[in-house]
Specification:
This protein is an alpha/beta fold and 464 residues long. The chain is 39% helix and 14% strand. A 6-stranded mixed beta sheet has the order 4-5-13-10-11-12, sandwiched between helices. A 4-stranded parallel beta sheet has the order 8-7-6-9, with helices on both faces. α4 (150-162) links the parallel β6 and β7. The termini are far apart. 52% of the residues are buried. The structure holds pyridoxal-5'-phosphate and zinc ion. Residues 122, 124, 150, 219, 250-256, 331-332, 377, 379-380, 407-408 line the site of pyridoxal-5'-phosphate.
C-alpha cells in the first residue's frame, strides 16, 4: 500500500516528488511545502462515502473505533499494522439553535463540530495520530514541536499512549495556559520553555530537529494534515453525507484550513462529493496576517504562484515594526502561519473568505457557546464570532447550512473563562481588562451568600 503514497511539492509548476519516508517536510527543489499524495488509480477507493458507515459495526477493531482511521482508505499512506491510534476522533457534530440564533441564523442550520472530545481535548489529536504513524514508519525515536499549548499536549499524550517516541516540547514563555502546560508535564514530555513567543519557538524547534534528527510534529508536517482531513469526513457523515454550504474555522498556523481544503479537493476529484463547501477562516485581530494578506493585500494562490513579494514585504514590515502577535486566544496567536500557501490553495478551490474578530467578540461568543451546551477555549470561539460577522455582512445567509468547528475544550484555559464570569474587579482586570476587554455581556456571576440556610433558600428562589 505504501508504494502508492509519496510526498509532493504543492506548487504544480515544481511538482517535485519526495519519498514517503522523508522527514524534512520541505521541497528539495523550491523550498515549498509538501503534500502527502496518492496514486489513487492503484488504490481501493470506495465508490460512495456511505461505505464508511459499515466501520461502525466493527468497533472492537481499534482502527475502526478511531474517528480518523475508519476513513483510512482516504489517507492510505500506512499499512494497518503500522497505525498508531489512541482512540482519537470520537467527536460530535451537534445542531445548535441557540448559538445559531445568537449569530442570526435560522433554526436547524448551524452545526458545531466539537473537537474538544479528543483524548487530549483538542483537534490536534486527529493530526498527531497520523504524524505518529508516519514517525513509526520511518523509525523515529524522538519527536518535537513548538506549541502554543495544544500541539504539545497532543504530542505528550501520544508519546505516553503509544510508547513509540520520547517527546520534546518547545513553548514560548509566559503565554501557555495551565490547562495545556499541565498536560505536557503530566504526560511526561521534556518541556523546554523558550524566552520568546511562538514564532521564535517554532524557528528553534526546526533548527534543533534538523541538527539532532528529531521528528517534527508541527503542522508543517504534511502527515498531520492528513489526519485532520477526517474532521471534515465526520462532519459530512453527521450531515448524512450532504455537503454543507460553509465550513467556519479559526486560523492560526492554518493547518486545519489547509487540511479541510485538501479533504474536499480530493473528495471532489474522486467523485465522492459533487462540490466543495465554502470555507471561512477566522483570525484574531491581534494575529491577523492571513486576513491582511488575503482580504487587504489581495494575495491569492494564483495557480500555485502566490505573490511572494507581497507576502515577504508584509512579514518584513511585521519584523521591522517589532510587531508581536497578541490575543487572548493563545492557540491562534501566530503571525507567521507556516501553512499560508496551502490555505490560499484551499480558499481558491473552495471559494473562501477570511475575517478577523476581537478578543471581546470571541469571549462573548464563547459564553454563548457555553450557555448553549458546548465548552470551548477562546480560540475556538473565533468560529462563532466570525460567523456572526459574516451573517451580518450578508456573506453567509441565515438559511445556509454551516458547520462551525470548535477546536478545543473549555478546560484548556479556565483562567479566561473565570475572569469573564467573575464579580471580582481585580480578577477581571488582570486577565481581560488590561487586554482591552470592556464588556462582559453574558457573564454568569457567582452569587455571594452567607452560610445560612434561610439566606441560601432565598437566593435560590430569587435567581433560579
Ligand atoms: C492549533 C489550534 C488552532 C489553530 O489551528 P491551525 O490549524 O493552526 O490554524 C485553533 N484553535 C485551537 C484550540 C488550537 O489548538
Ligand atoms: Zn517545489
Amino acid at each position: 500500500m505504501t508504494d502508492h503514497a509519496f510526498q509532493r511539492c504543492i506548487h504544480p509548476q515544481c511538482g517535485t516528488t519526495v519519498e514517503l519516508t522523508s522527514t524534512t517536510f520541505q521541497c528539495p527543489k523550491c523550498g515549498g511545502l509538501l503534500d502527502v499524495a496518492y496514486d489513487w488509480n492503484r488504490l481501493p477507493v470506495p465508490t460512495s462515502l456511505k461505505h464508511f458507515e459499515s466501520k461502525w459495526t466493527d468497533r472492537t477493531n481499534p482502527l475502526n473505533f478511531s474517528g480518523v482511521w475508519r476513513f483510512r482508505e482516504l489517507l492510505p499512506f500506512a499499512p494497518d499494522s503500522k497505525i498508531m491510534t489512541i482512540g482519537e476522533g470520537q467527536t460530535l457534530t451537534r445542531l445548535s439553535d441557540t448559538v445559531g440564533a445568537y449569530v442570526g441564523m435560522r433554526p436547524g442550520r448551524l452545526y458545531l463540530q466539537y473537537e474538544g472530545m479528543n483524548p487530549s481535548g483538542s483537534f490536534k489529536d486527529n493530526g498527531m495520530t497520523a504524524a505518529f504513524t508516519h514517525a513509526g514508519l520511518v523509525g523515529a525515536r524522538r519527536a518535537a514541536c513548538a506549541s502554543t499549548g495544544n500541539t504539545s499536549a497532543s504530542l505528550a499524550i501520544y508519546c505516553a499512549g503509544t510508547n513509540l517516541m520520547r517527546g520534546v516540547v518547545f513553548i514560548g514563555s509566559g503565554k501557555i495556559s495551565y490547562g495545556k502546560l499541565s498536560q505536557a508535564l503530566e504526560h511526561a514530555a521534556l518541556t523546554l520553555q523558550i524566552a520568546g513567543d511562538f514564532d521564535d519557538a517554532l524557528r528553534r524547534v526546526q533548527e534543533v530537529s534538523r541538527q539532532l534528527g528529531i521528528y517534527l510534529v508541527n503542522s508543517v508536517n504534511p502527515f498531520r494534515l492528513e489526519g485532520q482531513k477526517t474532521i471534515m469526513y465526520r462532519a459530512l457523515e453527521a450531515l448524512g453525507w450532504e455537503v454543507p454550504d460553509w465550513i467556519v474555522v479559526p486560523g492560526g498556523n492554518l493547518g486545519n484550513s489547509s487540511a479541510f481544503g485538501k479533504a474536499f479537493m480530493e473528495l471532489a476529484d474522486l467523485g465522492l462529493i459533487a462540490r466543495p463547501p465554502r470555507i471561512a477562516v477566522i483570525n484574531a485581530t491581534g494575529a491577523d496576517t492571513f486576513y491582511q494578506l488575503y482580504e487587504k493585500h489581495g494575495v491569492r494562490w494564483n495557480g500555485g504562484a502566490p505573490d511572494g513579494k507581497k507576502v515577504g514585504a508584509y512579514l518584513k514590515m511585521l519584523d521591522d515594526s517589532g510587531a508581536k502577535a497578541d490575543t487572548l486566544a493563545s492557540a491562534i496567536e501566530i503571525n507567521r502561519p507556516v501553512n499560508l500557501p496551502k490555505a490560499l490553495r484551499a480558499l481558491e478551490r473552495c471559494g473562501g473568505v477570511v475575517r478577523e474578530v476581537t478578543d471581546q467578540e470571541m469571549l462573548d461568543a464563547k459564553a454563548k457557546i457555553g450557555a448553549g451546551g458546548l465548552g470551548c477555549e477562546p480560540a475556538s470561539a473565533a468560529t462563532v464570532a466570525g460567523l456572526m460577522k459574516l451573517v451580518k455582512e450578508g456573506i453567509i445567509g441565515p438559511d445556509e447550512r454551516v458547520v462551525g468547528v470548535l477546536t478545543a475544550h473549555l478546560l484548556k484555559d479556565p483562567t479566561a473563562t473565570v475572569a469573564y464570569h467573575t464579580s471580582d474587579p481585580k480578577t477581571f482586570e488582570d486577565v481581560l481588562g488590561k487586554r482591552g476587554v470592556k464588556r462582559v455581556a453574558f457573564a454568569n456571576r457567582a452569587v455571594q451568600v452567607p452560610n445560612d440556610l434561610e439566606e441560601i433558600l432565598k437566593a435560590i428562589e430569587l435567581y433560579a
